[in-house]
Every structure is written in C-alpha cells, then in structure tokens.
Amino acid sequence: MGESAPDDGARPEPGIDDTVPQSARIWNYWLGGKDNYPVDRAAGDQFVSVYPQIVDVARHSRAFLSRAVRYMAGTAGIRQFLDIGTGLPTVDNTHEVAQRAAPDARIVYVDNDPLVLSHARALLTSRPEGTTSYVDADLRDPDRILAEAGRTLDLGRPVGLMLLNILGHIADYDEARSIVRHLVDALPPGSHLAVADGTDVVTGEAFRTAIGLWNQASDTPYHLRTPELIGGYFAGLEVLEPGVVPVSRWRAEPGPFGEPDDVDEFCAVGVKS
Questions:
Q1: pLDDT confidence of residue 207
Q2: Strand partners, 194
Q3: Phi, psi (5° rounding) for residue 113?
Q4: Which end of the chain is more exposed for a tag (fewer CB within 10 A), N or C?
Q5: For residue 81, which of 109, 111, 112, 101 has the smallest C-alpha distance?
Q6: What is the β-pairing status of strands 131-136 and 106-111?
C-alpha cells in the first residue's frame, strides 16, 4: 500500500492488531481523529491518492448522521437510538446530537472493533437525564444485539436504528437485507431506520478502483451497492423525503455557494408504520 506514514509514537492497546489497516481507524483518520496507527494512515493516504473525494464522503456522511439524528430526536420524537457499526468516537456522536434535542434520550452503541471498545468510555458521556451503553457484538448476530440493547432500551417503544457505512461489509446483499429486516421486525411502529452506504454512480471507475485497493489491504472488505439496492433495505417502510439520495443531499441546507456536490454514498431514512 505504498510508503508508511510516519510513526508518531502511538502504540496499540492490548488485543489490538496494528499491523493490518482497519476501517474504523482509517475513517477516524480521514475525519481528522487521532485514534489510528501508522498502518491505517498509510492505507488512508494511499486511498486518498487514488480517490481524493473520500474525505468529502467521510465528512458528508458524518453530517448526514447529525441531520438524521436531529430529525428523529426532534421532529419525530424518538427517544431511543441503536447505532450499529459505531466506529471510533469523533465530533457529534449520536448521543451528543440526540441529547442536545432530547436530554433524556437513551443510546446503545454496537461495534466489534477492539479499539472502539477501548474508547467506549468516550461514547458513554451521557447527560444525567439520559443513558448511553456499549455492546461488543457483530452485525451478523442481530439476536444478540437486540438482547443486549434491550437492557438499556425499551424495545416496545420506537427506536431510531442507525446502520451507517456498515452494511457494505456484508458481502452477500441478501444476507445484509435479511439482517436489516430481522432488526426492524423486532422494533415497534414509529421506529425509524437510517442507512448510508457507498455507491459508484457518481464517480464510477475511480471509486471502484479505490475500493479494490481498500479490499486488498484491509481485513474488513467493503462492497459498493447501487442506490436501488440501498433502497431495498427499506422494504415495508415509508421512506421519508427526499428518498434515497447522496448523503450530501439529505435535507441539507444550501450554503453560500449553492447546493452541495453529490458524493458516492447514498442514504435514506424510513419509518415503520
């Protein structure tokens, strides 16, 4: 993957492999975080050299999370969130956004990366009125996720289910869709689903080439999906306006220079009736 990034002296915590790039740590690097290692920075820099747009994708994806959670906690009145594939703590984590709108919001984070687990304390800084907790589990085990989440959340009341940049790590689309259906079926009417994942309809071969590099270097391969396939996760749900769109376009307010550019990550938010 090219030349290694300089070693800033950071050393891995016990149980963490710093010899193989990991997606949560690379994503953290692109967002300007410090919870990553030289191997992650080298892989991230190599990716950027092939596909510089990935930095915009990462930032727009984070902004979508904020807007979606703000909508759910505010307009939709959701007070419980299940965020699967949390990634490393950074600015405007789900509980921070939700509890600004609703201080009593309860949030469960789910991830299976040892480094995310080691930093989970940063995700547990709930406001006194609310609650946050962390579950060490794999997306492929939805029953365990639901059982553990049920210790913090009341699964008889509406939940905001967040699946951002995680379903692409499931190689088989039918399996990914089945996992989503399993999770949504366990939640009551009024629950919301937010999904975002990578596509190749904006930049085409450039992104496919970069993803190929990622998959060669990472132990967590990623699979691009079409917007139509992303829309398939919402079968049986009411997809809210503006539908399945680039993360940069989901209810974004125009800036002083007009509408944001499209990026190759599409998203949607749906509600269970």
A1: 95
A2: 162, 269
A3: -90, 125
A4: C
A5: 109
A6: parallel
Strand partners, 198: 265
List of residues 6+ apart from 199 with CB closer than 8 A: 224, 225, 226, 227, 230, 264, 265, 266
pLDDT at 120 over 80: no
Indicate the residue type of 204.
G
The CA distance from 20 to 220, in Å, is 10
* Cβ within 8 Å of residue 52, ≥6 positions away: none
Residue with tokens 């220079």: 257
Q: Are strands 160-164 and 192-198 parallel, antiparallel or unpaired?
A: parallel
E strands present in 46-186: 80-84, 106-111, 131-136, 160-164
Strand boundaries in 166-251, DSSP class E: 192-198, 238-239, 245-246
Greater confidence (27 vs 184) lies with 184
Q: Is residue 215 a contact partner of residue 46, using CB atoms and an 8 Å limit?
A: no
* Long-range CB contact pairs, 215-219, < 8 A, 24+: 216/1, 217/1, 217/20, 217/21, 217/43, 217/46, 218/20, 218/21, 218/22, 218/23, 218/26, 218/43, 219/20, 219/21, 219/22
pLDDT tens for each residue of 59-101: 999 999 999 999 999 999 999 999 999 877 777 889 999 999 9
Report how far residue 16's alpha carbon sits from residue 9's, in angstroms, rounded to the nearest whole number.
Answer: 16
* Amino acid residing at 97: V
- Percent of the chain at pLDDT > 90 equals 68
